[in-house]
Amino acid sequence: MAEWVGIGKRARRCYGFDEIALVPGRVTLNPEEVDTTWEFGGRDFSVPILAAAMDGVVDGKFAIEMSRLGGIAVLNLDGVQTRYDNPGEVLDEISKATPQAATNLIQKLYTTPIKEKLVARRVEEIKKGKGYAAVSCIPQNAEKFAAIAQEAGVDCFVVQSTVTTARHISSKYAPLDLYKFCKELKVPVIIGNCVTYDVTLELLEVGCSAVLVGVGPGAACTTRGVLGIGVPQVTSTVDCAKARDFYFQKTGKYVSIITDGGMSRGGDVCKAFASGANAVMIGSAFARAKESPGGGYHWGMATSHGNLPRGTRIQVGLSGSIEQILFGPAEVDDGSQNLMGALTTSMGCLGTKTLKDMHFVEIIIAPSIQTEGKVFQATQRVGMGK
């Protein structure tokens, strides 16, 4: 599987979404009769898509609407929603900044201390609107924020950092005990992010309810450029899903794998499920929703790092409502709207009844999949040529 890259050093080839294609099945199904349900935390969700915990994507109103449509939106407890009583003013300031000033402005705005009272308030706002309250924070804040959020009625807690392992070593502070955290919290816990079989297996063993897969693939993320780390999403999802399957065989406990980042179109979402995902987490596509708090702008969770930002603010524009992005009707030609329609149609063409059936479809290496026969789209900058 690996080839030599120099004396004594071998490297294996890994693959991203643009390098593979899915092979149609021997049987086709009516797309209206496939089942996209995924089970998480003892509940069934008809939309296997989570909106990423980014300040330009999710606020309370967005989370409520996403819940109404059958999905989950994760609110970032380390961001402006818990630092400012009126985050709308701050978000507006960020969206109006020039590209040259945006990163410094975000770094400055995120130095305002988090107000613990706002952690509870944001959860309560979502619950008052009858939404599914999922929140996220870094490991250093997890114990404190989880206790507050749980008392406020949170439904799910996400512990998320650039790279998360079950064995974090530090002499400067006490690392979060993930096993104890998952055991004591009374709501499902999602942990991320990771990209390898071994780390996934160890994270599953701490007792979490799902694992986020992906380091650096997000549209606003610069981790791969700044730190040089990451694994393309197809390979990382396949490897982490294999750990999930081994863990299930060993323990009888099935834990979901959520591919996080790198998906901007329906085809990417379909390929993630074929690679072994149970659900996907998306940021940039939802940042284009008119309900998103960023006003058509989107920035990574690590953009605000005071010393080494690993994200940037990007402009994605506004293209439609959350409902359009999930269910259509699509008014654009690039596959960024009607993601659920794309998924069900793909499942029908592949002959897969359920999302778990998607895990067994044939994948081929296809470096020309984005360009073959698409010369007019490329020259005219339409459809797949954008």
Q: Tell me, what is the CATH class?
A: Alpha Beta
> Number of domains in the coordinates?
1
> How many whole angstroms does the radius of gyration measure?
20 Å
> Structural class given helices, strands, pairing?
alpha/beta
Strands across the major sheet, in which order? 6-7-8-9-10-11-12-13
**Major sheet characteristics:** 8 strands, parallel, barrel
- General shape: globular
Q: What would you say the CATH architecture is?
A: Alpha-Beta Barrel
CATH homologous superfamily descriptor: Aldolase class I
Architecture overview:
With 386 residues, this protein is of the alpha/beta class. It has helices spanning 60-68, 87-96, 99-109, 116-128, 139-152, 178-184, 197-204, 223-227, 233-251, 266-274, 284-287, 322-327, 339-350, 355-358, 375-380; strands at 2-6, 9-12, 20-22, 38-40, 43-45, 49-51, 72-76, 134-137, 156-160, 189-194, 210-213, 256-260, 279-282, 297-299, 313-315, 363-365. The relative contact order is 0.17. Strand 1 and strand 2 form a beta hairpin. The protein is globular and about 55 Å long. The mean pLDDT is 92. The protein is built from 15 helices and 16 strands. The chain has one domain (44-319): Aldolase class I (TIM Barrel, Alpha-Beta Barrel), CATH 3.20.20.70. The two termini are 33 Å apart. Helix 1 packs parallel to helix 4 (116-128), helix 7 (197-204) crosses helix 9 and helix 10 (266-274) crosses helix 13. 35% of the residues lie in helices and 16% in strands. The protein has an eight-stranded parallel β-barrel, surrounded by five helices. Strands 1-2 form a two-stranded antiparallel sheet.
